Amino acid sequence: MRIGQLAKRTGVSHRALRHYEAQALIESTRQENGYREYGHATVERVLWVRELIDCGFSTRQIHGLLAYLE
Questions:
Q1: How far apart are CA 26 and CA 59, in angstroms?
Q2: Is residue 69 pLDDT above 80, yes or no?
Q3: Coil, helix or strand for 3?
Q4: Which among 51, 42, 48, 44 has a CA at the least distance from the CA of 18?
Q5: pLDDT over 80 at 1, yes or no
Q6: Do residues 49 and 20 lie in contact, with contact meaning Cβ atoms separated by under 8 Å?
Q7: What does 7-67 look like in DSSP terms, one character per residue?
Q8: What's the pTM value of the predicted model, to 2 decimals?
Q9: Are 59 and 50 within 8 A, CB to CB?
């Protein structure tokens, strides 16, 4: 799915999604035309990141927690 679809499904802005990707909290692949393509599992990851941010975690702290998920 493209960034607009991901934003719509999660309620998170395009800008925030690009920030999450820059912080290595989510990943995308690039299509030949340069558009980002996200997997369906990214929806759950974004919602998880959003919950942690709402609880007061920083994106740096969340990045540190990712090692325990994988």
A1: 11
A2: no
A3: helix
A4: 42
A5: yes
A6: yes
A7: HHHHT--HHHHHHHHHTTSS--EE-TTS-EE--THHHHHHHHHHHHHHTT--HHHHHHHHH
A8: 0.89
A9: no
Nearest to 1 by CA among 55, 43, 52, 56: 43
Banded pLDDT at 70 (limits 50, 70, 90): low
Q: Cβ distance 62 to 53 under 8 Å?
A: yes
What's the rounded Cα separation, in Å, for the pair 13 and 68? Answer: 26
pLDDT in tens, 11-55: 999 999 999 999 999 999 999 998 999 999 999 999 999 999 999
Quote the CA–CA distance of 40 and 61 in Å, as a whole number. 24
